[in-house]
Specification:
The chain is mainly alpha-helical and 95 residues long. It has a single domain (4-94), classed as Aspartate Aminotransferase, domain 1, CATH 3.90.1150.170. The chain contains four helices and no strands. The protein has helices at residues 4-21, 33-39, 51-62, 84-94.
């Protein structure tokens, strides 16, 4: 089973890679809503799942349906985004 330190470090790596990709990734998602929803349409496991597998799976399944809202190239509705300090503070509060 993944330890807490390794789990949080891997989660930070995934999140950091996403944030660092915002300036170059497409602003619009590569999937429409129904495709993104379908990606998650699978049975829940019968028993416990390694937390690392859960995070990796969530990141993999969600990525194609993400809108790059934190990008400087996103000119849609004003619905969010973050600066590094607010993102880090949110993580701290969540922990």
């Amino acid at each position: 089973m993944t330890g807490e330190r390794e789990l949080l470090a891997r989660t930070a790596e995934i999140a950091t890679a996403y944030v660092e990709s915002l300036d170059t990734r497409p602003v619009r998602p590569n999937q429409d809503y129904s495709q993104a929803l379908e990606a998650f349409d699978s049975p829940l496991p019968e028993g416990p799942t390694d937390p690392g597998e859960v995070i990796e799976g969530l990141a993999r399944l969600a990525d194609p349906g993400l809108t790059a809202m934190g990008s400087g190239r996103y000119f849609g509705f004003v619905i969010g985004g973050s600066v590094p300090a607010s993102l880090a503070a949110d993580w701290l509060v969540s922990a």
